[in-house]
Design goal:
Blueprint lengths: L15 H20 L7 H21 L20 H10 L5 E4 L11 E4 H20 L3 H35 L4 E4 L10 H7 E4 L17
Antiparallel strand pairs: 1-2, 3-4
């Protein structure tokens, strides 16, 4: 994708807003392409890369001073684009390893892990990013930056961080030739404590991820 498809060629490519918008657009386009399922063999490693790069933009937004919108009330953007199709496509692609356990707030003592889905995470992140992109494309740059920064702190930042840990763990389990725990029968509508979550964990061999393009490392001779 050329820069001209996202912003005016008269804009400074070194401008903070332009760089953030480019990173956001790149993520949306990339994960939408992965969701088509044309290359399932590289889905997990590619998502690991894309989520990592998005979190760089999030880190820059987080480190930036507070961005205040130009208007007191957010302009009406109309109906939000539907992300259910994206969610369902990823649920199919990631079916063997979609569910993982996550602790939402590491600073909240004795918080039990809860089941999450990578497919839900990716769809929710895209929904947040698209909302800001609608402002950006309408010429409301400050509003877009405010939304991306606010939603980074309130939602997509922690969601992307959790998904990144899950994706990194998947790749590490396979590359290191380690069995992967499975949450047998566990779903995201269950509220399980830590003991119950551990009890639900079964065994999945790394070859189940072969369809996702990952292979165990060779055994050193």
């Amino acid at each position: 994708m050329s820069d001209a498809t996202l912003h005016s060629t008269t804009q400074d490519p070194d401008d903070f807003a332009v760089q953030i918008a480019d990173q956001v657009e790149s993520f949306i386009v990339a994960v939408t392409e992965v969701a088509k399922g044309d290359e399932p063999d590289v889905a997990v490693p590619f998502l690991l890369l894309e989520v990592s790069q998005l979190l760089l933009a999030g880190g820059r937004l987080g480190a930036h001073e507070d961005i205040l919108p130009d208007e007191r009330y957010e302009p009406d953007l109309g109906p939000e684009p539907d992300v259910d199709d994206l969610r369902e496509r990823f649920a199919v692609i990631l079916e063997p390893i979609d569910v993982y356990s996550e602790v939402f707030d590491p600073y909240e003592p004795r918080k039990a892990p809860v089941p999450c889905r990578i497919s839900d995470d990716l769809a929710d992140i895209v929904a947040d990013l698209r909302h800001g992109m609608a402002h950006y494309r309408a010429g409301r740059t400050t509003e877009a930056l405010w939304w991306w920064q606010f939603s980074y702190f309130s939602n997509w930042g922690s969601t992307a961080s959790a998904a990144l840990r899950a994706l990194q763990s998947l790749v590490a389990h396979v590359r290191l030739d380690q069995p992967l725990p499975e949450l047998d029968g566990l779903d995201t509508d269950q509220d399980l404590g830590e003991d119950a979550l551990a009890e639900e964990a079964g065994k999945v061999m790394a070859e189940e991820l072969g369809a996702l393009g990952m292979r165990p490392v060779a055994d050193p001779a």
